[in-house]
C-alpha cells in the first residue's frame, strides 16, 4: 500500500466515492478509508436473510443519483463499470384504514384519475402543479445544485427575480419555508391525497407541522409523476461497485475495514491521517472527512483551534432514528386495498397528518411510537434479480423511532435496550402491515431486523439511527448546514474539508456535497 496520495477521504459513502471519482478524473491520486467491511455507507446491498436474497441496507431509491449533476458528467465511465438502473413507473402509494389507497405513477392521466376519484378540485390542483413544475424545478434544482454561499444565493435570487418577477419569486420562497401541512392543506382538500404526499416529509425529519418541509413532498410528487423512480439493478450497490471500480481505474484506492482515528496536522495544516493500527498516510493536497460533525471533532482530538467552529460542530442536531426490517418472502404482500399495489416501489402506511405528527413527537420524546410510519419497499416488484426466481425481498423502514428509548407510547414494551427491543418492536410493525396485507407473516422465509444503534455501529454518521445524517430543519439547512460559514465543507484547518450528508445539500443519494467539493478542489 502506497502511503502518500494527493487526497485522503475518510468514509466511503456516496459523497466520498463521487468526490474521489471526480478528483481522479482531474488527475488526483485519491485513497478512501472506510471502517466498515463494505464500501458505500448507507448505499450497499447485502444477503442479510438467506443466500440469493439481496437487501439494500438503508438507501433503496437511486433517483437522486440518476438525476444528479455528478452522474450527468460521469455517466459514461460509470456505465462502463457496470452501473445499471431499473426504472419504476409505479413509484409510491399509501394505504388507509378505510380500505382506500392512492398512488403516483407516470402513466398519462393515471395519477390524475386516482386523485379525481377523491376530488375533482384536487385533480385540477394536480394539473396546475404539473403544468407549473418545469419552471419551478429549474429554479429549485438550480438552488439544490449550487454551492451554499451568500454571493451564489444572491446571484440565483437576482436571476429568478429578473425572469419571473417579485410575486412568483415570493411564492417560491414561501414554498421553501412552508410546512407540509400548510402547503398540502392549501393545495388539496382530500385527506388521502394530503397524507400520501406528506409521508415524504417523514423520509427526512419533517413532520407535517415543521417549517421547511413542504418542498420535499412537492418535489417527490412532481419528479415521480414526470420522471418516475429508479432503483439499482441487482441492488443499490451497483452504484457503489461502479464508483469503486472507477476510482481504482484512475489509480486511486479504496480500503475497507480501516478505521481512521485522527487527522495529522503540521502546524495549521492537515497533512494526512492515522489509522487504528498506527499506520500513517499522507495527503499532499487535501484531507476530506465524510463524517458527522461530532465525528470531525473526534478526528481533531477535540479541537480545531477555532472555538467557534468547535462549538458549532458539537451542537449539531440529529434527526430521530430509523429501524429497518428486511424480509425474504415467498410472495409479495397481498394488499387488500388493490392488487395494483403489488407493482409499486414503495407503499407507505402513514394514514393521516395527525398520526404522522404524533409519531414524530413520540420519537422526539424518547418513546417508541404506538403507530410508527412504515415505508414498505418492494424492490423485487421492479427488479426480480434481487431474489431467487419466484421469491421476493421486502424493505421496511420504520419511521420515526428514538435512538435512546425512554419508554413505550403504547405502554406495552418495558425494555429500553434496543438489542432486546428490536425484535419485539418489529412485531408491532408487522402487525400494522398485516392489517393492510393479511397473511404477510405466512409468506416470510426469514427476516433481519436492524436497530437504530445497529445502523450507527455500521456507520457512525447515522447517530442514533439518524439515516439523514442530521436534522434538515431550517435552522440547520441551506446556509446553516452544518453551520453558517461551513456549508461548502470549509473548516478552520488548512487542507481539511468536511463532506457528506451533514453538509449542504444534505441527505439522499445525489452526491451533491462530494461533487461540489471535488469541483472546487479540482478546478471544476
Overview of this protein structure:
The chain has 524 residues and is of the alpha/beta class. The protein is built from 18 helices and 20 strands. The chain has helices spanning 14-25, 63-66, 69-80, 110-118, 120-144, 150-177, 180-187, 191-198, 215-227, 237-249, 293-299, 307-314, 353-364, 379-382, 418-436, 440-443, 452-458, 512-522, and strands at 4-10, 30-34, 45-46, 55-56, 85-88, 90-95, 101-105, 229-232, 253-256, 260-266, 269-275, 280-290, 321-329, 346-349, 367-368, 373-377, 392-401, 407-408, 444-450, 496-499. Strands 1, 2, 9, 10, 11, 12 and 20 form a 7-stranded mixed beta sheet that branches. Strand 11 and strand 12 form a beta hairpin. The longest helix has 28 residues, at 150-177. The two termini are 29 Å apart. The model has no long low-confidence stretch (mean pLDDT 97).
Secondary structure elements and their pairing?
Elements (H helix, E strand, L loop, with lengths): L3 E7 L3 H12 L4 E5 L10 E2 L8 E2 L6 H4 L2 H12 L4 E4 L1 E6 L5 E5 L4 H9 L1 H25 L5 H28 L2 H8 L3 H8 L16 H13 L1 E4 L4 H13 L3 E4 L3 E7 L2 E7 L4 E11 L2 H7 L7 H8 L6 E9 L16 E4 L3 H12 L2 E2 L4 E5 L1 H4 L9 E10 L5 E2 L9 H19 L3 H4 E7 L1 H7 L37 E4 L12 H11 L2
Parallel strand pairs: 1-2, 1-12, 2-9, 6-14, 12-20, 15-18
Antiparallel strand pairs: 3-4, 5-8, 6-7, 10-11, 11-12, 13-17, 13-19, 14-16, 16-17
Helix pairs in contact: 1-10, 1-18, 3-10, 4-5, 5-6, 5-9, 11-12
Amino acid at each position: 500500500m502506497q502511503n502518500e496520495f494527493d487526497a485522503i477521504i475518510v468514509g466511503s459513502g456516496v459523497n466520498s466515492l463521487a468526490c474521489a471519482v471526480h478528483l481522479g478524473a482531474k488527475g488526483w491520486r485519491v485513497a478512501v478509508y472506510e471502517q466498515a467491511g463494505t464500501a458505500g455507507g448507507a448505499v450497499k446491498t447485502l444477503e442479510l436473510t438467506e443466500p440469493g436474497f439481496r437487501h439494500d441496507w438503508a438507501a433503496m431509491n437511486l433517483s437522486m443519483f440518476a438525476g444528479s449533476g455528478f452522474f450527468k458528467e460521469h455517466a459514461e465511465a460509470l456505465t462502463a463499470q457496470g452501473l445499471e438502473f431499473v426504472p419504476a413507473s409505479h413509484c409510491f402509494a399509501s394505504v388507509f384504514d378505510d380500505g382506500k389507497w392512492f398512488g403516483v405513477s407516470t402513466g398519462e392521466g393515471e395519477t390524475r384519475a386516482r386523485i379525481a376519484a377523491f376530488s375533482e378540485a384536487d385533480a385540477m390542483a394536480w394539473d396546475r402543479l404539473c403544468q407549473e413544475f418545469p419552471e419551478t424545478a429549474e429554479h429549485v434544482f438550480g438552488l439544490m445544485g449550487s454551492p451554499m454561499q451568500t454571493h451564489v444565493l444572491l446571484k440565483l435570487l437576482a436571476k429568478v427575480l429578473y425572469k419571473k418577477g417579485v410575486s412568483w419569486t415570493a411564492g417560491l420562497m414561501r414554498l421553501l419555508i412552508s410546512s407540509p401541512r400548510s402547503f398540502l392543506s392549501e393545495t388539496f382538500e382530500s385527506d388521502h391525497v394530503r397524507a400520501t404526499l406528506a409521508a415524504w416529509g417523514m423520509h427526512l425529519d419533517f413532520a407535517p407541522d415543521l417549517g421547511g418541509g413542504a418542498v420535499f413532498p412537492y418535489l417527490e410528487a412532481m419528479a415521480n409523476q414526470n420522471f418516475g423512480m429508479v432503483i439499482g439493478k441487482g441492488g443499490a450497490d451497483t452504484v457503489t461497485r461502479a464508483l469503486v471500480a472507477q476510482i481504482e481505474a484512475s489509480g486511486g484506492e479504496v480500503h475497507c475495514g480501516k478505521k481512521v482515528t485522527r487527522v495529522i496536522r503540521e502546524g495549521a495544516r492537515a497533512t494526512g491521517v492515522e489509522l487504528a493500527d498506527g499506520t500513517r498516510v499522507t495527503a499532499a493536497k487535501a484531507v476530506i472527512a465524510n463524517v458527522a460533525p461530532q465525528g470531525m471533532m473526534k478526528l481533531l482530538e477535540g479541537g480545531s483551534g477555532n472555538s467557534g467552529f468547535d462549538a458549532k460542530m458539537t451542537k449539531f442536531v440529529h434527526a430521530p432514528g430509523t429501524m429497518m426490517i428486511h424480509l425474504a418472502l415467498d410472495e409479495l404482500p397481498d394488499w387488500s386495498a388493490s392488487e395494483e399495489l403489488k407493482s409499486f416501489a414503495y407503499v407507505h402506511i402513514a394514514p393521516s397528518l395527525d398520526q404522522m405528527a404524533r409519531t414524530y413527537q413520540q420519537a422526539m420524546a424518547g418513546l417508541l411510537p404506538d403507530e410508527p410510519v412504515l415505508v414498505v419497499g418492494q424492490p423485487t416488484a421492479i427488479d426480480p434479480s434481487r431474489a431467487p426466481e419466484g421469491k421476493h425481498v421486502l424493505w421496511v423502514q420504520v419511521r420515526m423511532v428514538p435512538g435512546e428509548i425512554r419508554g413505550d407510547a403504547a405502554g406495552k414494551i418495558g425494555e429500553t435496550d434496543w438489542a432486546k427491543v428490536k425484535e419485539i418492536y418489529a412485531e408491532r410493525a408487522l402487525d400494522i402491515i398485516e392489517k393492510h396485507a393479511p397473511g404477510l407473516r405466512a409468506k416470510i422465509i426469514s427476516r433481519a431486523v436492524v436497530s437504530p444503534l445497529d445502523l450507527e455501529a455500521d456507520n457512525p454518521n447515522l447517530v442514533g439511527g439518524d439515516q439523514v445524517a442530521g436534522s434538515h430543519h431550517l435552522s440547520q439547512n441551506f446556509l446553516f448546514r452544518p453551520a453558517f460559514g461551513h456549508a461548502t465543507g470549509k473548516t478552520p484547518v488548512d487542507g481539511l474539508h468536511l463532506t457528506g450528508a451533514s453538509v449542504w445539500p444534505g441527505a439522499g443519494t445525489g452526491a451533491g456535497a462530494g461533487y461540489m467539493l471535488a469541483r472546487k478542489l479540482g478546478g471544476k
